[in-house]
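Continuing from the previous page of notes. For each protein in this section, the sequence appears first, followed by its structure tokens. Read the first protein now.
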Amino acid sequence: MPDQHFTEANKIYNRIKREEKIFDAGLVDLGRLRREYRGKPAVNSLAEEIETDNRDARLYADYLLGNVMKCEDPEDFATCRTGITKEVMLYKNYVSRRLNPARYADPFIGRRSLEIQLQNLTRQLEEEKRELQSTQNEHRLIDRAAKENEMSEFEAEQLGKAVEEACRIPALAERLDEVQKEYEKLDLTWLFRLGEKIDEKKEEREARDKERGAALETRAGAKVRLEQLEKSDLAAAEEKIKQVKGEIAGQFAQKWIEETAEPRFLKELHADGRSRMTLRESFTRARNQTATIMEGHLRERRKKRSDYNQEYRMPYDTEREDNDEYSGELRVLSDIRLPEYLSRIVDAKEKAYNQFRDDFIAKLKSNIESVRAQIEELNYSLRNSVFGTDRYRFTIGPRAEYRNYYDMIMDPLLMDTGGWNIASQSFNEKYQKEIDSLFKTLIFNETNVTAERRAEYEKIVKKFTDYKTYLVFDLIVTNEQGEEQRLSKTLLKKSGGETQIPFYIALLASFSQVCRIRSKGKNNTIRLIILDEAFSKMDGERIRESIGLLKRFGLQAIFSAPPEKIPDIAPIVDRNIAVYKSGHHSFTRNFDPAQIEEEFQ
């Protein structure tokens, strides 16, 4: 066998060499191939599968395979004259057929052709070795059988039957597999469920048997008890009923029993299906509870009477069942004294409204109008200031959640002479809800309150008496294109330098308000502010605008600025003090940038 494989390999090798000699001998006109395929690469042809760096080999491959087109499906054969699919279906001369795998099993060209041929030959050699091993095993078996002694006719017959039975084994095994698959497909859960139901029914039957036995025992006892009741207890019960009926007739009127008591009893008896004994126990408990409640009310009445007598120094009896004395006192208060109190209440209410208007609403309105005027003055000062390319102005408006209160406070007719006021009917009809809500919030009527509750009330009063509660402040930034943005919505989105400008504007405006610079009358104050690390994130133009705004506000300032900001700050301030260190000591020196510049020139 090895000699045979060697011979086959030698034939393949000689064939490859012969084809190479034919190619080298020029049997193929390479010049003609170059002229025919110059500029005509094989598009979508089988020649694309061959990779080579040799120009002549490329032309030869295109010549042999250039017209063989690659097709994804046999239906694509209609688009070409010669085609082949991945499944090696060949279409040529209007005929399609599958190529014999033996024709392409061994490749003869390519980098790995010899390697693949060697692998195929090695695989074929392994198969032939296995076939040789199998043949040798059969030969040994036949040889051993030939050496056995001659069997009798009976033994041969039995052995034949055993061989026949053994031949049936594969068919039986196959049938067994089929039966096993059919068994696996069967749904036998109903069988298990049926078994579970049978067990449940057995348990139910055992439980019913136990219940039946217990019922029989109960029946026997009830029968004995019935005989006892009929002989002795029934007569005593009838006598007891007559006695109770007599007591009921003696305590209650017959009309009340027939119209109220008996219908109520029957209603309660049939409502829940309760027994007479259970109903009696329920009414007994209810009667005891009612007695307890009545006793509590009596104690409360006695206490209130005593408190009234003690507070108003009255001699009335606190234990009397009737309430004539106190009812007479109530008539005197309601018919005689109450009208006097009503006139006083009306007068007190009018005074409270006037005080509410003068001390609360008027002050709130005055504060709001004052802060509006201050905002207008600040905006007037900011009108000519440009920070880079932006301008700033403050806005003020009502807070949304307190808009109703704001409208009431700022009503234009509220404080006009001859117009509306807080006590007028028109104003009350329009703002009754807001007035009642504010009165309830600001008037503290509780007694014996804790310190925490009182502190909470003080916070509420402080909140609603502060005019800023009803307002919303914002800073509008306008760029050179006229586009406006609210600082409250863009503050966290801007850089450090952009956020410092609104900070300084708000800071200077706050100092201007605190120092009351725009207020009427004398206001000789120092108006001094101190800024540390001033203008650290601003450029020169914004620094100059900020200092100019500070001067327009009439403020005095002391800046502590980093060295790199000195060229921008020093020329426009009144005095400059430089601080420098030498060793462990610090020194200061005054300098005037204008004087220094003159000396330098």
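Done with the first. The second protein uses the same format. Note its length before scrolling.
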Amino acid sequence: MTPEQIEQLMQRPDTYPHPVELPIRKIETHISTVWLTGQYAYKIKKPVDFGFLDFTNARARCHFCHQEVGLNRRFAPDLYEGVVGLDAGGLHPLPAMSASDDTECVIRMRQFDPAQVLSRRIENGQLPEQAVMDALAERLATFHQQAEPVEEGSPWGWPEKVVEPMLDNFPVLRETFSHWQERLEKLENWTRRTLSRLRGRLARRRYTGMIRACHGDLHLDNIALIDGEAIPFDGIEFNEQFRWIDPISDLAFLLMDLDARGLETHSHRLLQQWLFHTGDYESLPLLPFYAAYRAMVRAKITTLRAGQLQGEERTRTLAEVERYVALAERYAAGRTPFLIVMQGVSGSGKSHYAQRLGARLGAIIISSDRERKRLAGMAPHQRPTPEEAGWLYGGEMSRRTYDRLRRLAGELLQHGWPVILDATYLKRWHREAVMRRHDDIPTLVFSIQGDETDHAHRITRRNQAGADPSDASVEVMRQQLRHVEWPDEDEPAYIQPAGEPIDWQAVKKVLGLPIQKA
């Protein structure tokens, strides 16, 4: 069937085997068209060839329709109904897996309100509540942890294959934006240098099973708020190289999309929550590499989409490309590393302040409560029995926990990430054991000091809620107060009264960060 025939049929109410809401609405991307009828949405793949996909053959389009339904049911099982056929008589069940010259394969989906797609909500100033975005981070973390690892003999995930689609972004952009030759050359050279620097880490990720069957196209246009939950959909089915990737590459697309819309704080929060659930801090040195790639993917796709448009709409679409190229340049420029060591007794609000510091300063939090339980094979909110508590909080497990914090902090700082260590760090020698390893970067002890009665009230409320990974009791807090060593004058410290706002100017001054003038 020709695109013109499909267009005419899908506009007719009698094509559908159910009542439709008029007018029938159409949504287009560079590779597909979606028809909205009220109860169902019907997705048809365009007969296009962009190199990274080829939908010019009807049988190939049908194959990928079935592939798309199967893959997307992993994270949106209630959304994807199946594949139906379209011919001159309308839509009908498809008995076979393939199409013909007279029949087009069509994906049938449960229709949701297009205004609930996250990109649309953000454009309308309606970003979902933080609890919904935190739940999305947990959903993605669970999906990534359970996703099928790539087979041993597969080519996907090796460094040479990882960089192929990255380098493929540049020819399209060079052809369209001849005045950006120098910018594009710098980005391409950075990509090649970064590949060389990260080659060993990329290979280790491949060896250790961290190349998995991911979503592949995880950005705000492909996540919708459905029944109060943020649900990903429309994952990659047409290109195995785009789907068999590292989970941090998958997540990088969503983080980049939030950054591109000026929502850096939300992007950082999503990353932090994903890390809390996965513990995959070893992936962070790869994130700028993948985030820059995702920005250039969007630059390329936006350019291709502009090629299907005319007039002012084409001009406006091409102007969006600049935003993504500039964002890729920002990722390539890197960050300023620093180290904040939290200090305070249980119930003083360490984790609360760590979250605020992390969000405002773009630093990665590593929590002793979470990492201790991860090492023990326990869920963050799982409460130990008295017998389990003995070894969980004994000397050997404490040593292993703090060793892991030191190791992860050193690795992330080396790769340019600012880090916050969220633990008690009651003794000076304990703080110095971390900080003296990093005397070449700004360091800060963020010491929270307050009233014992207030600490006790916080612990009681926290334990009653049961939503915090800490198991500390009021008695533990009182023991800590008897042994705590508050920072001396020669330590680079900031004293935070418990429950009070942070003096951001003072914190930045100690860290040597730029201070915004009033």
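What the second structure shows: The CA atoms of residues 174 and 180 lie 7 Å apart. DSSP finds 19 helices and 15 strands in the chain. We return to this in next week's lecture.
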